[in-house]
Every structure is written in C-alpha cells, then in structure tokens.
Amino acid sequence: MTASDFRPGLEGVPATQSAISDIDGQRGILSYRGYSIAELAAHSSFLETAYLLIWGELPDPETLRTFQHDVQMHRRVSFRIRDMLKCFPAGGHPMDALQASAASLGLFYANRALDNPDYIRGAVIRLLAKIPTMLAAFQLIRMGHDPIQPRDDLPYASNFLYMLTEREPDPLAARIFDSCLVLHAEHTLNASTFSARVTASTLTDPYAVVASAVGTLAGPLHGGANEDVLLMLEEIGTVDGVEAYLDRAIAEKRKVMGFGHREYRVKDPRATILQGLAEELFDRFGHDEMYDVARRLEAVAAERLGPKGIYPNVDFYSGLVYRKLGIPTDLFTPVFALARAAGWLAHWKEQLGANRIYRPTQIYCGAAGRAWQPPEARVAKNGDLTG
Ligand code: CMC
Asked: 0.70 cut: is pTM over it?
C-alpha cells in the first residue's frame, strides 16, 4: 500500500454493496429501490417511502395502514425526555438537541436484540415516530412554551408542522412538506449514511447509529448547507447583487453554498423538484424575493461554475420552501435529519444483514524510531504545540 493508493474523502472507493438507492450523476437521476425520486415525490408519502427504503418493497394497503398506525401510536415521548430537553440551553443548536435526544432513546429502550425482526421493526417505528416529537418539543421549549402533544388524527407531516408551529397546517403546506421528506429520505453512501453504517457495523443499538449520523449531517459541507444557503441569499440581498457576490466568492475561492456535489455533474434532480414545490408555495402563500435572488444566482453560476459540473444541489431551494412553511432557519438541518432517519435505518438494517465491522487501513506518514526525552530537553526545540 503506497501513498498513490490513497483516495482523499474515499472518492470513488466502494465501501459497501447496497440495494437501497442509486444515483446516475451524469444524467441527474436518483432512485430509491428502483423507483425514480420524481415519481415517489409526486405520488408516495414519507412513511410509505420509509417503508420502501427499509423493507425493500412498497407496502400493500393493509401493511401501510398498520405501519402508519404503529408510528402514530409511538409518537409520544416520556416526560423524562421532555425534562431533559428543558435542561438544554435554549441557545444551543437544535441538531445538538436532536443528537442528544436520539441517543437518549437507547437508555429507555435498552434491550437490544439485533437478530429479532420485531426488535428491528420496533426500533424503526420508535425512531420515526419520536424524532419529530423531540424536535418540535425542543423548538417550543426554547421559545418558552410547553411542548404540545402529537395529534392522533393528523398524518405524519401535518402532525410535525402542528407540533412545531402550534397550528394545524394548510393541507397544501402539509403535502409539500411531506414531499420534502420523501426527497431527503435517502441518498446512497453520503457522509452521514456512511457514519451510520460504520456505527451499525459495531452492532451497537440503533439509537447510537442515528445519533452518530445526526452528528455527521450537521456540518456545513453536508446537511448544514441548507441553513447557509438562506444566509447567503440574504447577504446577497437583491438580484442586482448576485454577479458581484459570485465574482467575489470565485476570486476568494469560497464555496457557493447549495452548489456542487460529489456525485452529480448536472443539477441535482431533487433541486429541480424542490424548485417546483417552492413555486407552488409562493403561488398560494405569496412570493419570496429571495427566490428571485436564488434564480439569478443559479443562472449566473451556470455560466461560471457549470463548466466544472457544479450546479444546484438539494440544499439550494429547500431553505426557501422551509422558510415559507414557517420553519425557523436553524431547524432546516434537523428537518433534513428527520427525513434522512429513514435512509439511515434502511442502511442499519442492510448492514446487519451482511455485517462485517468497518476497519479500513491507513498509509502511515508520521515519524518513526524516536526516543523519549525529558521536558527540559524538548521545550526550546518544539515550543508550545497546543495553541
Ligand atoms: N462553489 C464553488 N466551487 C465549488 C463548489 C461550490 N459550491 N463545490 C465545488 N467547487 C469546486 C471546488 O472549489 C473545486 O475546485 P478546484 O478543482 O478548482 O479546486 C472543485 O469544485 C471540486 O470541489 P471539491 O470540494 O473537491 O468537491 P467534493 O466532491 O469534495 O465536494 C461538496 C462536494 C458538496 C462538499 C462541495 O461541492 C461543497 O462544498 N459545496 C458547498 C456546500 C454544499 O452545498 N453542501 C451540500 C451538499 S448536498 C447535500 C448533502 O450532501 O448534505
């Protein structure tokens, strides 16, 4: 093994075999279990899609009803979890609150039985059911309100928006939010999913698997970019400011948030669908001037970044949709996590089906054969390396 074998970021290195989703990055096609994302976003629901991802087939009507019912029955969380959320600092990032609360479920449901399909099903249902409740509870608590209980008569997406905003959402808003969840549910072996699989491969519990993936999703190069896109659009401010902003970003070699993808050389198909959803929302609930800025940025970037295969990714339009739905900016990434939990759980189950613990190798490039010296002999030479 030599340095020339090293692929930074494991680019192009197959790290698993998976039957869950597939990307054709040249043609801009994403499919879950062989179904195109466009078809699923148009016709499926988040819970149906989650079932498809995790168990490999679309559920028949009875199976779907039972699954939806079981998720609905597990939405409530223990008062201890609500109390724990109350102890978190209100100024903390909701991704940290989500990571901690997802991990805490392992304390409540500790009887791990990874070879039992009922345990797998129970853990999937519990995580899909409770993540929205915990997230909405943190949001209300940090606003100084009491968390509200889930509404059994509302479907998954409506119930989340209801718990978050304390108002029953408009059916169009709920339908569009559900489509957003479908679009974010899975995306092959991205950083957080890889993290989930590595954690799963140690045979730890599924709550630790999801918590480790949440931590990985939080960074600005991954899920965190959706927050930064909106901040960037606001910084640009007007359509007239786009060209100067882009020129400056390119000159300073700064990444334009919401652009570029390791897998796609064309516009991310999810960005195209999200753009359509944004327009539906604006038609119904009023225009957002930041959308004009975004469209201008996409057009100008097509000339300047397009030749390098850099186009809008899923995060470019999602923030505008979430903002119109009344979701606070720092909840954009947690909402991404809420949806991606379906994919992480599918990968958890797949990993368990043919498990081998991940243990890659490295190419050592450090010093060798050094002899320990007392502090007096080294301070002058090394200085303080901790600062
Ligand atoms: N703006 C400007 N230049 C870019 C961008 C961008 N957004 N993305 C890539 N490039 C350039 C980069 O500067 C480099 O140029 P050069 O070869 O001249 O040095 C080249 O394209 C390759 O970039 P890279 O960073 O080596 O590519 P990567 O595959 O390692 O990174 C990425 C992919 C998504 C991390 C990167 O495109 C990026 O940082 N984008 C901005 C952040 C973002 O929108 N992230 C969300 C990703 S999609 C959702 C998700 O995965 O969570």
From this structure: yes
